[in-house]
Specification:
The protein is of the alpha+beta class and 334 residues long. It has 2 domains: 191 residues, no CATH class; 81 residues, no CATH class. Strands 2-1-3 form a 3-stranded mixed beta sheet. It has a 3-stranded antiparallel beta sheet with strand order 5-4-14. The protein is elongated and about 65 Å long. The protein starts with 33 loop residues before the first helix and ends with a strand. The chain binds zinc ion (ZN). Zinc ion binds next to strand 3.
């Protein structure tokens, strides 16, 4: 099977009401906060938040590699933001990511999570969001750490305490790497349609997203074998992929007959390891080729789309209220 190169960073999705998820996790090591590690005795490498900042006052429990660590929200947000978007992104895009992560954390604080009752959030991007410790980031970024980490810290500090609300309620600020040109209605991917998670055009494309378009080739036998692993007894008498149903606006595959099984685009994505359900295919002789656009579930904020908006001068508030339609960014305490 041919497939695209690995992503340059893990994309995320928050579990929340969600029933389907894809895992592209990165390893996490022992807990060292960004603040502790980045600062030196006489010359802090990065600015630390003021002691009375909203993010520094709240302590949260984060499940990191199976161990629950207690840290400030400010430290959590550095590790999650740095794991979710490159430090090379435009500042307003990094801020948008920081606010989305903060919003999700506050949402989680208000909701019991049976997946990890002793922790508010975990480091699994398929369940909560990716999180890297400062030592991991130093190892991953190497000589670039001193250049990139201040960009992350600045974004967290500049948005201290800011969250996103819809009709006054903290939202589920889900995000993904690239929507492939359009984001998706939450109800088309998961069980619940939320009013602020609706299809939006997204400005990223092949010039701005690594592996925006990915191709996968399977022999017909291999394609059938993978389906049979999931659905023993499946029949292909009436074709491989038929009767597709798509989001008319986004083009994302919603449902299709895989042999005699009706499956969702999400299920097809899981069976064949596709980067997204924005997928088309051609069958040529003994081969089926699938082509995807974007990366991730496609709901909520598109990280690369946010970067394109920021490149063109949008503020983080502009970006967030666009991807979370009808929402408002404001201080948690206000
Ligand atoms: Zn979790």
């Amino acid at each position: 099977m041919k497939h695209a190169l690995p992503p340059i960073f893990a994309f995320t999705l928050s579990a929340l009401v969600l029933v389907a998820a894809f895992i592209f996790a990165e390893p996490i090591s022992e807990a060292v906060t960004a603040t502790e590690s980045a600062a030196t005795d006489d010359a802090p490498l990065v600015a630390v938040p003021a002691p009375d900042s909203s993010d520094a006052k709240l302590r949260v429990n984060v499940l990191v590699k199976g161990e629950t660590l207690n840290m400030t929200l400010a430290d959590y947000l550095r590790g999650v933001t740095a794991s979710e978007v490159p430090g090379t992104f435009y500042p307003e895009a990094i801020k948008a990511q920081a606010v989305a992560a903060r919003t999700n954390l506050y949402w989680k604080l208000a909701h019991t999570n049976p997946g990890h009752p002793s922790a508010d959030v975990c480091d699994d991007p398929a369940h909560c969001a990716a999180y890297a410790t400062d030592s991991d980031l130093q190892e991953k970024w190497g000589g670039k750490y001193a250049e990139l980490m201040p960009n992350i810290v600045s974004a967290v500090n500049a948005t201290d305490g800011i969250v996103i609300r819809y009709n006054g309620d903290i939202i589920q600020a889900v995000f993904h790497s690239s929507g492939g040109g359009y984001t998706e209605d939450s109800g088309n991917v998961w069980t619940e349609q939320l009013p602020y998670l609706v299809t939006r055009e997204s400005p990223e494309g092949p010039a701005s997203v690594p592996n925006f378009i990915s191709e996968y080739a399977f022999t017909i036998n291999e394609f059938k074998r993978l389906a049979t692993e999931k659905y023993p007894g499946i029949s292909f008498d009436k074709g491989l992929l038929t009767n597709e149903e798509r989001n008319a606006q986004s083009g994302r595959l919603l449902y299709v007959n895989l042999g005699d099984k009706r499956v969702s685009g999400t299920q097809l994505r899981l069976i064949y390891g596709l980067r997204s359900a924005m997928v088309n295919w051609t069958i040529d002789g003994n081969e089926i080729r699938l082509t995807t656009k974007g990366y991730g579930h496609g709901v909520g904020l598109s990280q690369y789309g946010a970067n394109e908006f920021a490149r063109n001068g949008a503020s983080y508030e502009d970006i967030l209220t666009y991807y979370y339609k009808g929402s408002v960014a404001s201080s948690y305490s206000s």
